[in-house]
Design goal:
- The protein has about 270 residues and is an alpha/beta fold.
- Helices cover about 55% and strands about 15% of the residues.
- It has 2 domains: about 150 residues, NAD(P)-binding Rossmann-like Domain (Rossmann fold); about 110 residues, N-(1-d-carboxylethyl)-l-norvaline Dehydrogenase, domain 2.
- The protein contains 11 helices and 8 strands.
- It has an 8-stranded mixed beta sheet, with helices on both faces.
- α1 runs parallel beside α2 and α7 packs across α10.
């Protein structure tokens, strides 16, 4: 069994950490600079609080970084020279994850999580790439999270995450924007009536998109920009997902996301301007 650190146990990270703890690993986190919601989630998952991030560096064999995209590099910098293995499991582009790897300056694994917080088997995959990926995957054997090693070096797991989320979250933004536009032009009822005839699944998909955006849109702004960068380096237009970022940012501004942003941003990190 291993000693694993989770930085920082948000909605996803706390459940991932809990799955590792149930497998028999010792799972640690650091409450320094964290809010009450994070503390409650970590406690519910059975994670042990070591107080300071420096203690995670000293005690852990593996550290999982599961934070909003804009915080990924700064978290890695805090573990520069870490003696163990650093796993970046954030929604960032292949180019960004290579910057993260350089910032960490240690044994490094690229990770991408697809699916909801893994409360039961078969719902969620953690894709891993890089020289140390197989060793990290072994930690999750027998847990609710399926860890899958990809061929290829650092960047492969992030590329898969980006291209997958380009559809799931990009189309959510499109549906939110479509309904807003229909309302602005006074044809929302008529659009819904036409959807009922020719696209009966879209009304429900829109409802799910609104619900997800209300809960996580503040976090998806940065992810859409990372997806745009991924498309750009492949010679594809960036504009689809830059526009999606604008949709999520506008929705977030209408709802207010200050508590989420404060909760998820590492101590001393530059907070996203969005």
């Amino acid at each position: 069994m291993a000693i694993v650190g989770v930085v920082h146990p948000g909605t996803m990270g706390s459940v991932v950490g809990g799955a590792l703890r149930e497998r028999g690993h010792e799972v640690l986190w650091a409450s320094e600079g964290r809010g009450e919601q994070t503390t409650q989630r970590a406690g519910a998952a059975g994670l042990a609080d070591v107080g300071r991030v420096a203690a995670l560096r000293e005690r852990c064999e593996v550290v999982l970084s599961i934070v909003p995209p804009h915080a990924a590099v700064e978290v890695a910098e805090a573990f520069n020279g870490f003696a163990g293995t650093f796993v970046d499991a954030n929604a960032v582009s292949p180019e960004t994850v290579r910057v993260v790897a350089e910032a960490a300056g240690t044994r490094f694994v690229d990770g991408g999580i697809i699916g909801p917080p893994p409360s039961r088997a078969g719902t969620t995959r953690l894709y891993l790439s890089g020289a140390e990926a197989a060793g990290v995957a072994e930690l999750f054997e027998g847990t609710a999270l399926d860890a899958i090693v990809l061929e290829g070096d650092v960047g492969a797991a992030s590329a898969l995450k980006m291209t997958y989320a380009a559809w799931t979250k990009g189309t959510a933004a499109l549906l939110v924007a479509i309904r807003a536009t229909a309302r602005a032009h006074g044809v929302d009822d008529e659009l819904l009536a036409e959807w009922a005839i020719s696209q009966p699944q879209l009304a429900e998909r829109h409802s799910r998109a609104v619900e997800s955006t209300a809960d996580k849109g503040w976090r998806w702004v940065g992810e859409m920009r990372e997806i745009a960068a991924t498309f750009g380096t492949a010679g594809q237009p960036e504009g689809f997902h830059l526009a999606a970022a604008e949709v999520f940012a506008a929705f977030t501004a209408g709802q207010g996301s200050g508590d989420h942003a404060r909760e998820a941003t590492p101590p001393g990190a530059r907070r996203s301007s969005s």
